[in-house]
Structure formats: structure tokens, C-alpha cells
Amino acid sequence: MDKLSNYFRATIEEMRYNVTWPSTTELQKSAGLVLVGSLVFAVVVGIMDVSFESVLKAFYNSFR
């Protein structure tokens, strides 16, 4: 039990005094970058999905 309490004390001390927390401006910039990157990735995957669907439909219809 003593090891566990030492672990939590050390963790709290580390988080308070040794971690460099980003400012609000930095967080907003990072969140915006993640949002834009996620949207770009979603659009690329959507385009790939539509194009693969079209190619596969054409392929399967060629055997009818």
C-alpha cells in the first residue's frame, strides 16, 4: 500500500511541477489543426470509397 501512495504522490508532483502545459492559444491552434487534418482525411477516404465502388460495380456488371 505504501508503494501505491508513493506512486500517486510522485505522479501529482510530476504533473504540477515538471510538466509544461500548453497555453490556451496553443491548444486552440492544435485543435484546429487536428480538425482540419481529420476533415481532409475523411474527404480523401470518401473519395476513395466512391471511386472503388464505381470501379467494382463496373467490374461486376461486365460479367452479366
Automatic annotation (TrEMBL):
The keyword Transmembrane applies. The chain crosses the membrane at residues 31-52. InterPro entries: SecE_bac, SecE_sf, Translocase_SecE/Sec61-g. Keywords: Cell membrane, Membrane, Protein transport, Translocation, Transmembrane, Transmembrane helix, Transport. One of its GO terms (biological process) is protein transport by the Sec complex. Component of the Sec protein translocase complex. Heterotrimer consisting of SecY, SecE and SecG subunits. The heterotrimers can form oligomers, although 1 heterotrimer is thought to be able to translocate proteins. Interacts with the ribosome. Interacts with SecDF, and other proteins may be involved. Interacts with SecA. Belongs to the SecE/SEC61-gamma family. This is Protein translocase subunit SecE. It comes from Hymenobacter properus.
